[in-house]
Write a structure and sequence with these properties.
The structure holds 3 protein chains of 3 kinds. Helix content of chain A is 74%, strand content 2%. In chain A, a hairpin with a 5-residue loop joins strand 1 and strand 2. Chain A is built from 13 helices and 2 strands, in the order αββαααααααααααα. By secondary structure, chain B is mainly alpha-helical. Chain B folds into 2 domains: 44 residues; 216 residues, MetI-like (MetI-like fold). Helix content of chain B is 71%, strand content 0%. Chain C is globular, with a radius of gyration of 25 Å. The chains are: A mainly alpha, B mainly alpha, C alpha+beta. Chains A and B meet through helix 1, helix 3, helix 4, helix 5 and helix 7 of A and helix 1, helix 2, helix 5, helix 6 and helix 7 of B.
Chain lengths: 289, 278, 395
């Protein structure tokens, strides 16, 4: 069985590298997170004993936790439908291939190439109360980042903008993937464009819509960078915290790893729970061909 | 017949104009950024969108000098390039094993790797930070890229592509005297080059654009910052110095913009717009 | 230039593996196959054959008979589940394909799409020969033989099917392998090209001195190319022999039906023994089997009873005689100089081939569809098979 042994060795060699990193940098930290959340963890990240639910009680009892939770859910609740509506509309607009298609398709997808931190800096500048162009154009005098509500609104616009490019691309290729004879059939049958969109095209791209829904939802639940970059890390800025930016603050600025673990797990469980729920829903509403 | 054609042409033109107008609104932040980067300090205080002249480059030189951006660009390049390279190697090897070998626990291992997609990286930040610090690897390039080495979606796409290559290709190479590794390098990778290039570019942009993780692992040594971390620190010296920040942002956008345009063209040519899912 | 010896070679796909293969091939009709047991799917069972040096062996059989699996075991692409395989007296069961010194031509050619024809052919040599000049010489020589010199700089994509086929063959012969394996190399070509390539293979075969193992489902290819033919079914060898042997003395009804087109007709008949004499009886028709056949039958201790009577379509003749059987004439298929006449006798279908080209160059056809006519067979043209086992009673 020399050949077999050699083959098994080869399999090991091909798979070991990726497995090693998957275990050390995904599964181990994931499990460690769970363990940490039930432990007394010191500022060096070492476990100093069993804490039971103490970390959870402490985290959930903090004044800023309900706020962070509320912001996270709010961002997800607005970001996801907004992105879907915007990208589906753009894709419907761009669906037909025209002479200028490459131009406006590129324009629509361009936000995709802008990184989160670059976008944050641009938006921070645009929304600046003194020199920012937003206040000027709309004739406003808002100190966007001074009040919680306007700061969150600005962050929301930013995160929606970030998602447009890639999701538009997915929607567009899904729309163009609909067999042309189906669209031709609706034209022969004299179905109005509006009916065609809502009764034919959107149902047919529902798998992609569902995919975009899920990935966007996860991304939105993990929102933290705008809060960290734009608002900075300070006591006042915690007013706009999301779960993940709160974790960043607690984990790295105050080295409270028990708190960080609880927040991570909370965000993860919420995300997973909603995703599973949407999969249940998916079975009923998403059409696969 | 003619009337219908003219009507359609008019409709297309109108839609195109509307689409371009919307497109310009969408990329307005980018336009704003580029214009702002060329403004003088006093121009920035006026509400004009366009700068007085696009030849005013003091912001760029200031950003590069004061912000140490050149160094950060170098850091980012190293992290993005080698991180992507290692990621590609790992995914290609794993994809090959899953596409061509039969072995015990194949399904278990496959789902173990795909399972990493279920866990958002942000959730792992704190514990991964502790691992890196225990390994005494904070403030290293390796630390900046290590969490990106595993890409299940990339592995999955490569496996799909590999499986679409006829099996007798590998058998022909075997009979021609080539083992798995030399088949992979001399035949399979060249055959799959379009997909591999696209994945490489995509991954490079992702690593180039990464923010939170590099921020955390390079917190104590500014010289190791990546460009994306660097630009967020630009306006902490002179407050509100936005033209400097925007110049830095512009610089940081150049590589990803170029790659983005290349990738768009590639995808249009290859008709594989949907293949980037994940 | 080597002998290949297979000793009781078998291939069993374990159930799990088989389930995967079946899913891929969608061959659901194999579900009820007798080859399937709790041990898995027996693709090849007890295959024993000695292939002599420089012999041209053709493995032939319907799809799923195990012929390709056998070939792939010889190549080393498929693990051998049981038995022994020797190439040039060396046991190669555990030897990787690259170390067996075999070359193979694949059904879909398996040309490397990103390489030029030249590099496709040179690819295998690069692993074995250092000298660039030597490689170049060999590649050009092979290209010369196959007439593809002018395409050397092209990529496979820009070649026609026949040209690709030549490149695939070139890639194999350039190495001068011990054994040349060919897996249905002509099945992707259209009929005209296939005939032409078959002829070229015959010429090629005379130019390169090596052992050939050739797999096909096409009995014409098998008959024209092979020194010996191995006919397989359900993973078992049915018969091994020269084309003439298997045609004249098929071992069973399967071989008899498989070799020859249109295929042999089978009728239910009975055999009567009277001392040293045997008589075949079918309705009104009866015939003595003849002395030689009778001797063989007696030697095999055949007692008589229900048999299957096999007659090739060319051996049925029209008759006015009383000692004959009547059949209804069905569809006529004019093939050119001959006509295929579909007959129906006692609800059983048969086919008869007869020459209709007259000496004056005109076709002479006076068969009327729907009419009832009488037919008989020559006694030498009768094949007698056991009704239960299908075995040829004279072998």
């Amino acid at each position: 069985m020399k050949m077999k042994t050699r083959k098994n060795l080869k399999v090991l060699l091909f798979l070991l590298p990726i497995l090693l990193f998957a275990v050390v940098f995904v599964y181990y930290p994931f499990i460690r997170n769970i363990v940490n959340s039930f432990s007394l963890v010191n500022a060096k990240g070492e476990i100093r004993g069993f804490a039971g639910l103490e970390n959870y009680r402490y985290t959930y009892g903090r004044k800023d936790f309900p706020q962070a939770l509320k912001h996270t859910l709010l961002i997800a609740a607005i970001n996801v439908p907004a992105t879907l509506i915007i990208t589906i509309s753009l894709a419907l607009l761009a669906n037909k291939r025209r002479r200028l298609s490459p131009l406006y398709e590129t324009l629509f997808t361009m936000p995709m190439s802008v990184s989160m931190s670059a976008a944050c800096m641009i938006f921070k500048s645009m929304f600046s109360p003194s020199v920012g162009i937003i206040n000027y154009v709309f004739g406003l005098k808002i100190g966007w980042f001074e009040s919680k509500e306007t700061a969150l609104a600005a962050c929301l616009i930013l995160t929606i903008w970030m998602g447009i490019g890639f999701d538009f691309l997915l929607m567009l290729s899904a729309l163009r993937g609909i067999p042309s004879h189906i669209i031709e059939a609706t034209r022969v049958d004299g179905i109005s464009p509006l009916r065609r969109i809502f009764r034919v095209q959107i149902p047919l791209i529902s798998p992609t819509i569902f995919y975009v829904f899920c990935t966007n939802f996860v991304l939105a639940m993990m929102t933290s960078a705008p809060m960290i970059i734009i608002m900075g890390v300070s006591a006042e800025s915690s007013a706009t915290n999301t779960l993940m930016s709160m974790m960043y603050q607690s984990g790295f600025s105050s080295s409270d790893y028990g708190l960080a673990a609880v927040l991570s797990i909370t965000a993860f469980v919420l995300t997973l729970g909603f995703t599973i729920l949407s999969f249940v829903f998916e079975r009923k509403r998403v059409h696969y061909q | 017949m003619m009337r219908l054609k003219t009507k359609n042409a008019i409709k297309d033109t109108v839609v195109s104009i509307i689409a371009i107008a919307i497109g310009l609104i969408i990329i307005f932040p980018i336009i704003y950024c580029v214009c702002g980067a060329f403004k003088t300090e006093s121009e920035f205080l006026t509400p004009n969108l366009l700068p007085g002249s696009f030849s005013y480059t003091k912001n760029f030189s200031d950003a590069l000098r004061k912000g140490d951006l050149l160094r950060y660009i170098g850091n980012s390049f190293i992290v993005a390039f080698f991180g992507t390279l290692i990621r590609m190697v790992l995914s290609i090897l794993a994809a090959y094993a899953f596409a061509y070998f039969d072995f015990r626990f194949k399904n278990v291992l496959f789902f173990l790797i795909l399972g990493t997609m279920m866990i958002p990286g942000d959730v792992l930040l704190a514990t991964n930070y502790l691992t890196i610090s225990k390994l005494h690897m904070l403030n290293t390039y390796f630390a900046c890229m290590v969490v990106s080495f595993v890409s299940a979606s990339q592995m999955f796409m490569l496996r799909q592509r590999f499986m679409s290559v006829p099996r007798d290709m590998r058998e022909a190479a075997q009979i021609d005297g080539y083992g798995d590794l030399s088949y992979l390098i001399t035949i399979l990778i060249p055959i799959c080059r379009p997909v591999i290039t696209t994945l490489f570019v995509h991954s490079f942009i992702n690593l180039w654009n990464a923010y939170l993780w590099p921020l955390i692992v390079t917190a104590s040594k500014p010289a190791m910052r990546t460009i994306m971390v660097g630009i967020t620190k630009l306006n902490s010296w002179e407050d509100e110095n936005y033209q400097l920040v925007l110049a830095g942002v512009c610089i940081s956008l150049i590589p990803s913009m170029i790659l983005f345009i290349i990738m768009r063209r590639n995808m249009r040519k290859g008709g594989m717009e949907g293949s980037l899912v994940g | 230039m080597a002998s290949v010896v297979l000793k009781n070679v078998s291939k069993i796909y374990p159930p799990a593996e088989w389930a995967k293969i079946r899913k891929k091939d969608q061959a659901s009709d194999l579900n009820a196959s007798p080859q399937l047991s709790e041990k898995g799917f027996a693709a090849v069972t007890d295959f024993s054959l000695e292939i002599r040096d420089k012999e041209f062996i053709v493995l032939v059989g319907p799809s799923g008979c195990g012929k390709s699996t056998t070939l792939r075991m010889i190549a080393g692409l498929e693990e051998i589940s049981g038995g022994e395989l020797y190439i040039d007296d060396r046991l190669v069961n555990e030897i990787e394909p690259k170390d067996r010194d075999v070359a193979m031509v694949f059904q879909n050619y398996a040309l490397y799409p990103h390489m030029t024809v030249y590099n496709n052919i040179a690819f295998a040599l690069k692993k074995r020969i250092r000298s660039k000049a030597e490689i170049d010489r060999k590649v050009r020589e092979a290209a010369e033989i196959l007439g593809i010199t002018e395409y050397l700089d092209r990529k496979p994509k820009s070649l026609s099917g026949g040209q690709r086929q030549r490149v695939a063959i070139g890639r194999a012969i350039v190495r001068n392998p011990k054994v040349m394996l060919m897996d249905e190399p002509l099945s992707n070509l259209d009929a005209k090209l296939r005939n032409q390539m078959r002829e070229e293979l015959l010429t090629l075969r005379n130019r390169i001195d090596t052992t050939f193992v050739y797999v096909t489902h096409d009995q014409t290819e098998a008959m024209t190319l092979g020194d010996r033919i191995v006919i397989m079914k359900d993973g078992f060898i049915q018969q091994v022999g020269t084309p003439q042997e298997v045609f004249e003395n098929p071992a069973n009804t399967f071989v008899a039906g498989f070799i020859g087109t249109p295929q042999m007709n089978f009728f239910d008949a009975s055999l009567e023994r009277d001392g040293q004499r045997y008589t075949v009886r079918m309705g009104n028709f009866h015939a003595d089997v003849g002395e030689e056949a009778a001797r063989k039958l007696a030697f095999n201790n055949v007692t008589g009873g229900d048999i299957i009577l096999g007659v090739r379509p060319e051996s049925i003749t029209e008759t006015e005689d009383e000692v004959s059987f009547s059949a209804r004439v069905g569809v006529l298929e004019l093939m050119g100089s001959s006509v295929h006449i579909h007959l129906e006798h006692n609800g059983k279908k048969a086919i008869m081939v007869t020459q209709v080209l007259g000496e004056n160059g005109k076709l002479k056809m006076d068969y009327k569809p729907g009419s009832i006519m009488r037919f008989r067979f020559a006694r030498e043209a009768m094949y007698l098979f056991d009704r239960q086992t299908g075995k040829n009673l004279e072998v």
